[in-house]
Amino acid sequence: MNGFSDTLIAWYQRNKRDLPWRQTNDPYAIWLSEIILQQTQVAQGLAYYLRFLSAFPSVLQLAEASEDEVLKLWQGLGYYSRARNLHATAKIIVQKYDGRFPDKYALILDLKGVGDYTAAAISSFAFNLPHAVVDGNVYRLLSRVFGIELPIDSTAGKKTFRELADELLHPKQPALHNQAIMEFGSQFCKPVNPDCPTCIFSDRCLARQKGLVEILPVKEKKTKIRPRFFHYLVLVDSKNQVLLQKRQAGDIWQGLYEFYLVEKDKAGPLSDDVLLQALKEYGARKPQLISVSETYKHVLSHQHLFVCFYLFRVQFSPALLPLLVSKEKFAEVPLPRLLEKFATDCGLTEIV
After folding, report:
1. pLDDT confidence of 18, banded at 50, 70, 90?
2. Of all helices (H) and strands (E), which one includes residue 233?
3. N or C: which end of the chain has fewer CB within 10 A?
């Protein structure tokens, strides 16, 4: 462990990427970056970070925004619970802390959508508090350098890595240490084919000595993938209005809008009888089928979606008028990325 942190920090100061959230100690901006970068690569998250800061320069402005505005800006990043938690937490900070971001680790950890890693990152980067970050990059680096074969998702493994990360943390420069260990893990000690011969820890890395680089870190649980089969009825009337519904809690894409959905438990097209019954249920009269799309495959972390779209011209009953979305409003509605892709592919954005 001798010199571990000093070696890391020296490497970081020579090789760090120039990223905007590293140029501020504003806890709001740092919190925003950390939430966006959960489950998201920097290359994709950077543009979202800049757009969010431009639209909502302060926590107060974020708190005052509507959920639809927040979700629309988040559209395409996935894991939409992050956006809902971000919005909810902004309101809590305004109401409970008078718009001032809390400056204690325990208070930050208590915020909605903030776990141990995010609380450590915010408290060290914004307030230079001595809390070590432990994320996937840190697990990988520490498991390799110190040859730890305990599963990182086990109780014993989490405890071991947490204690080691705390022990290694630079006492006088916790923020710089945390930035360095995350940067090195993501940019150098990569999951596949790391450049071990030129690594700053090559002379002490136990995984390299034991031939375990491609094996570590170890996980004991495997993700079970669930296939789902979605059939969307895209219903457009003569005034180029489309019928949308808002997805509710308890499933993917909560709070986003979608076309009318028929979900089946196996692959294959909808039968004519099922289509007619669904059209009747949704109040669509005189349906004219315009097109049936190819099957789109959409990969989520725990689900694989197989999605087909049925585009219809229809007439709607007067009772459905409040649910119809005009061409002007359609562009403002937060949609799952897959549905936006279909709308673009088929020219729906030009129709409605």
Report:
1. very high
2. strand 226-236
3. N
Q: What angle do CA 343, 317, 262 make, to 5 degrees?
A: 45
- Judged by phi (left if over 0) then psi (alpha if -120 to 50, else beta), residue 211 lies in left
Of the candidates 197, 189, 188, 199, the one whose C-alpha atom is nearest the C-alpha of residue 143 is 189
Which residues have C-beta within 8 Å of that of residue 294, sequence separation ≥ 6?
Answer: 308
| DSSP character at residue 231 | E
Nearest to 42 by CA among 71, 12, 70, 21: 21
Q: Is 112 left (phi over 0), alpha (psi -120 to 50) or beta?
A: beta
Q: H or E segment at 278?
A: helix 272-281
| pLDDT higher than 70, residue 352 | no
The conformational region for residue 97 under phi > 0 = left, psi -120 to 50 = alpha, else beta, is alpha
Write a three-state SS string for 286-305.
EEEEEEECCCEEEECCCEEE
**What does the radius of gyration of the chain's CA atoms come to, in whole angstroms?**
24
pLDDT tens string 231-261: 999 999 888 889 899 998 889 999 999 999 9
Q: What is the largest CA-CA distance in the chain?
A: 77
**Rounded CA gap, 145 and 262, in Å?**
50
What is the residue whose two structure tokens read 């990988």? Answer: 140
pLDDT for residue 285 is more than 80:
yes
Do 235 and 284 form a contact (C-beta atoms < 8 A)? Answer: yes
Kindly list the catalytic residues.
34
Q: Are the C-beta atoms of 179 and 116 separated by less than 8 Å?
A: no
H helix or E strand, kind and range, residue 114: none
Angle at the Cα of 324 (from 348 to 329), degrees rounded to 5?
A: 65
Q: What is the pLDDT of residues 33-45, one digit of tens each?
A: 999 999 899 999 9
